[in-house]
Structures are given as structure tokens and as C-alpha cells.
UniProtKB/TrEMBL annotation:
GO CC entries: cytosol
Organism in which the protein naturally occurs: marine metagenome
Protein name: MoeA N-terminal and linker domain-containing protein
Coiled coil: none
GO terms of biological process kind: Mo-molybdopterin cofactor biosynthetic process
Signal peptide: none
Residues covered by the MoeA N-terminal and linker domain: 18-85
Length: 100
């Protein structure tokens, strides 16, 4: 949708706010639902929505895996009023392993 289409489609609204009920009604009447499904190759699936859930028959990865890296600091071990605090790194936990 280009800028002109956005501007012209917004011209149907006036400057006053509509009620929540009117807004909900507008959205429900404007939305369209398609029950059409099709089978496509994985290569052509970018940007598409699955019609049903897919469940793997194998556990991948075979361990709990966090998508985040970071550090944990026990606040009770620090004095908040201090500046320039230094912390010792006491453990490195790699994917699939547990800490000490």
C-alpha cells in the first residue's frame, strides 16, 4: 500500500474518536477470514501462516536451550551505593549443560 492509498483510505474517518463498541463493530465488519489452505514447498513458505500446528517427532535440540546470553548478579552480594563495582565470572554454562 503506498502513501496515497493510506491517506485516501483514512479520509473516510472524521476527527472525532469513535466509541470502543463502534470500533469493534467496524473491525469485525471489515475483517475477512479465509479458510482456504494450500500445500506449498518449504522454499516458498516465507511470510506464510501455517494452517495447523506441526509437531516434531524428535526432540530438537535434545536439551533445554535459552535463546539469551547474559550474566546473573546476586544483588545481596553487592553494595548498591558503591560505584565502579567489579564482579568475578565464576562459571560458564554452555548450551545443554547446567551450572555449578
Amino acid at each position: 500500500m503506498n502513501t496515497q492509498e493510506v491517506n485516501s483510505s483514512s479520509a473516510m474517518f472524521n476527527d472525532s474518536l469513535m466509541s470502543a463498541d463502534d470500533a469493534l463493530s467496524f473491525l469485525l465488519n471489515s475483517a475477512s477470514v479465509s479458510n482456504k489452505t494450500e500445500t506449498i514447498s518449504l522454499d516458498n513458505s516465507l511470510g506464510r501462516i501455517l494452517a495447523s500446528d506441526i509437531h516434531s517427532t524428535i526432540n530438537v535440540p535434545g536439551f533445554d536451550n535459552s535463546a539469551m546470553d547474559g550474566y546473573t548478579i546476586a544483588l545481596n552480594d553487592t553494595q548498591v551505593s558503591q560505584t565502579n563495582l567489579s564482579f568475578e565470572i565464576v562459571d560458564r554454562i554452555t548450551a545443554g549443560s547446567t551450572g555449578n
